[in-house]
Design goal:
The protein is of the alpha+beta class. Helices cover 49% and strands 21% of the residues. It has 21 helices and 27 strands. The chain has a five-stranded antiparallel beta sheet with strand order 2-1-5-4-3, with helices on both faces. Helix 14 packs parallel to helix 15 and helix 15 runs antiparallel to helix 16. The protein is extended, with a radius of gyration of 41 Å.
């Protein structure tokens, strides 16, 4: 380019800045638009996924109603035409299913035969719909109606109907009225952003339920464009005008259980808000960056131009002085001292750089030789294998042969020619991914070679080899043999599983004899009441048994935490009430020890697992009682911003500085070298630490030796209004005399002792020890209540006997299930059968109180059924 077309340096800098920034700005804008579009697609996908999940929840609720109707339809009382007994059962079901408002029995013509409703405003419309009755009678399958209204106060209802078969043919139709607001609770459970809306539409295009403004919307027709657009496909998305004039986008899915369609949508401007906001921010920031860069280029260019002009003048002077000399001539004296210094410095630097480059090359050559020697030594005596692959994934170099293979056998071959198919597939998948993505990868691979039974596990790392242009031209990798580590990990897992199974078996097997001792001690205590010496002996025996039960409970509790089998069930509850209750229950023990115990709280709630948090606070209070010889204990709450601390203060012996970390370890105790059982086993604080770690709560400890300690646990702080108070359904425990009990217990000692205790409490007891004897006992008459052990001989369970009794007498018989197992699955199965569960060991008083409470509940339910 001629000097005539040369441009100033500042212009070149501006053009350079523009050339560098404009592509980046354009590319950044493209990424911003793509990101905004991706977010919008994600939001739409979230709409669809939310609709699917809610539809599945709706179908499950309808299927549950169908299952209950089918169960009622198979009752013997209905088949025999005993409508009074059938109505008693239905009323019991209505109490268990609050979403049902009424039950209607119709004949084949649709005429009502029997109507069961707790109140007139809950009654079904007479003639729930000829098409529903005709479809159930014709197909023999359950069906769901559109939105209906009650006869009296015209309350809206949805009907679930099922066939009643008599002698193989459909004779009746059994229908249940479901309140739409119960269906609307499914929508309310979904946490969605503001202005998102959900609704359930029936087959006639009528709104059955809605997430917001339910009372105003129920029974009103849905938008015409939505009704017409959702008739064909099972699911999809639609866009149309909302009720307030805004454009809305709606995802819908039709229910598999009935003529309903569940819709979930949001205004289009809400969905597109992120796109426009992102574009605005991107354009504004890009313009600002461009202006700042151009200004910086102009200012910095001016600062560069002036020294360069001076340096150019000095260079011209040096060129004029050394013209025709092959070497750079000595620069003459220049009026610019900095230019002379710069020339001399550059000459010295050039000579030093040449010398340094030669020295660096020699050192690199020596280092490369030493590194290669060290690497070969490491791969020879260690478990490391290095290799290199070409573009066809053939091995071109190895430091050692894998799995006993010689390096010569491996070179030039692919993985599928050397290893079994599964191993080759994993290796080639990693190689292909690293090659395509141009970045390294890592995977654990089980390696098997055909003809060799031994399997080895390697930790494989592969990196791409790039050429001068940055393109991948090969792969290099390192494999480290981790077989011993994998085998050790598996052995540890097996040992942990074996420990868990042992503790579960020990829990059950130890609780059985302890429970027998508890019952026999109760009988012995009653008989020894007149002999003071025997009273002292039985008292000592009771203390020893209490200590044994506490030690067993602590061991099982700690073992469950160690094995990771404890699950957290978080919920919102009143923290002040929990602390006050624990303090009130511990007050008698404190008074017995001559201590004062106070609680200082304020109204607040928290979110945690209430059972596990109560376990932490109880252990802290118990620890304070054990190590406080005099003075008092204060259990209080201290607020700190968004958290609240439950603090247990005591005036005990305090914790030495050296012991403040180890006291949270298992079997660690202060001042108990003689292992006095009354001072526990040293597991209380270990359980506190493990439980707090499981819940994610922080523990605290402040202590002063010989003055006292303050243990604390920190939890989130919520206002008391955050707790949804549920009305208590507990009934008082009246003394029920003369009730008949069926007692099923396979342990002879426990059966004998428990029969004596229950008969002494005024019950008529018929005892059985297995399935056959229980069947014989049921033939003698219907018991008022069943008390049964869970595990029985010959693989039977107490739940089997309870189900058999309820089926035989066609009525609900209250039952209590007794077990030494602490598995959660047993408690869940008992809850499904509406059975109370008692874990061994338990006190006879607690069992008698539970029996009285269950009998009183059953009697009250029967009286309410008669009144209805």
């Amino acid at each position: 380019m001629s000097q005539r077309h040369a441009k100033p340096l500042k212009l070149h800098l501006v053009l350079l800045v523009l050339g560098a920034l404009l592509p980046l700005i354009v590319l950044g804008g493209w990424f911003i638009v793509r990101d905004a579009e991706t977010r919008r697609l994600d939001t739409r996908q979230r709409l669809i996924e939310t609709t699917r999940a809610l539809t599945l929840a709706l179908d499950k609720q309808v299927e549950a109603s169908f299952a209950t109707l089918r169960t009622l339809a198979h009752l013997r009382s209905l088949a025999e035409g005993d409508f009074d007994r059938f109505a008693e059962t239905v009323n019991a079901v209505l109490r268990e299913r609050p979403e049902w408002k009424s039950v209607l029995l119709l004949d084949g013509s649709g005429a009502p035969v029997l109507t069961i409703a707790p109140s007139p405003d809950a009654a079904l419309a007479r003639g729930i719909g000829a098409e529903v009755v005709e479809r159930v009678m014709r197909t023999g399958a359950p069906a769901v109606s559109n939105l209906l209204h009650g006869d009296v106060v015209r309350r809206p209802l949805v009907t679930a109907a099922a066939p009643v078969f008599v002698q193989g043919a459909v004779r009746y139709v059994l229908a249940a009225g479901i309140a739409p607001e119960r269906l609307g609770e499914i929508l309310l459970q979904q946490r969605v952003p503001e202005r998102w809306e959900g609704a359930i539409i029936d087959g006639a295009g009528t709104i059955v339920a809605r997430a917001r403004n339910l009372e105003e919307s129920i029974g009103k027709p849905a938008a015409r464009w939505f009704v017409e657009g959702s008739r064909g496909p099972v699911e999809g998305t639609l866009t149309g005008d909302g009720g307030d004039g805004d454009r809305v986008e709606v995802a819908f899915r039709r229910s598999a259980m009935g003529p309903w369609t569940l819709a979930f949508g949001a205004p289009v401007d809400v969905l597109d808000a992120g796109l426009w906001r992102t574009l605005g921010y991107g354009l504004t920031s890009s313009a600002a960056v461009l202006l700042l860069s151009v200004g910086f280029a102009l200012v910095h260019g001016q600062r560069i131009v002036q020294p360069m002009l001076a340096l150019g003048r000095a260079a011209d002077a040096m060129n004029r002085a050394g013209a025709g000399d092959a070497a750079m001539p000595e620069a003459p004296a220049s009026p610019v001292e900095e230019v002379n210094a710069a020339v001399d410095a550059m000459r010295r630097a050039a000579r030093r750089l040449a010398d340094a480059a030669a020295e660096r090359e020699r050192r690199l050559r020596d280092d490369a030789q030493r590194t290669e020697q060290d690497f070969r030594l490491a791969t020879t005596v260690g478990r490391l294998i290095a290799f290199r692959l070409d573009a066809g994934f053939r091995y071109t170099w190895l430091s050692a042969g894998p799995m006993g293979l010689d390096a010569a056998e491996v070179l030039g071959r692919r993985s599928e020619e050397l290893f079994e198919p599964v191993t080759a597939a994993v290796l080639n998948g990693l190689y292909r991914r690293v090659w395509d993505q141009g970045r390294g990868g890592r995977v654990d691979v089980p390696v098997r070679v055909p003809g060799r039974a031994q399997e080895r596990h390697v930790d494989l790392v592969v990196e791409p080899v790039l050429d001068a242009t940055g393109a991948v031209e090969g792969l290099t990798g390192v494999a480290y043999d981790v077989t011993e580590h994998v085998l050790a990990q598996r052995a540890a897992e097996r040992a942990n599983d074996a420990k868990t199974r042992f503790l579960a078996a020990a829990s059950h097997d130890l609780r059985q004899p302890i429970q027998a001792l508890r019952l026999l001690l109760y009988l012995l205590t009653e008989k020894a009441a007149s002999d003071p010496s025997l009273v002292r002996v039985t008292g000592r025996m009771g203390e020893a048994l209490d200590s044994t039960e506490r030690m067993l409970g602590r061991l099982m509790e700690f073992a469950a935490l160690e094995s990771g089998k404890v699950t957290v069930s978080g919920q919102v509850f009143r923290l002040d009430e929990l602390v006050a209750r624990i303090a009130a229950e511990a007050t008698p023990e404190a008074e017995r020890r001559g201590l004062s115990l106070r609680a200082r709280t304020f109204p607040c709630a928290t979110v945690s697992d209430p059972v596990l948090l109560e376990r932490i606070v109880r252990n802290l209070v118990s620890n304070a009682l054990r190590y406080t010889p005099s003075g008092g204990i204060l259990v209080g709450l201290r607020r700190g911003g968004r958290v609240v601390r439950v603090v247990v203060y005591d005036t005990g012996c305090g914790v030495p500085e050296a012991m403040r970390e180890v006291i949270f370890e298992e079997f660690r105790q202060l001042s108990n070298p003689e292992r006095d059982r009354s001072k526990g086993m040293g597991l209380g604080l270990a359980i506190v630490a493990r439980t707090a770690e499981l819940l994610g709560h922080r523990l605290g400890l402040r202590s002063r030796e010989n003055h006292g300690s303050a243990f604390s646990v920190e939890v989130p702080c919520l206002p008391p209004a955050a707790v949804q108070v549920q009305p208590s359904l507990d009934l008082p425990a009246p003394a029920v005399e003369g009730a008949s009990l069926l007692l099923v217990e396979d342990d002879p000692m426990q059966a004998m002792a428990l029969s004596s205790i229950l008969e002494g409490a005024g019950f008529r007891v018929l005892a059985a020890n297995d399935w056959r004897s229980a069947e014989w006992a049921l033939k003698r008459g219907q018991p008022d209540l069943i008390v049964s052990d869970f595990r029985l001989p010959d693989g039977a369970s107490g739940l089997d006997i309870i189900r058999t009794a309820r089926t035989r007498f066609d009525r609900f018989i209250p039952a209590i299930l007794v077990t030494g197992d602490t598995q959660a699955a047993i408690a869940e199965e008992a809850a499904l059968e509406a059975c109370a569960i008692f874990h061994k060991p338990y006190t006879p008083q607690a069992l008698v109180e539970a029996i009285n409470r269950r009998l009183a509940e059953a009697r009250r339910a029967q009286e309410e059924t008669v009144e209805a």
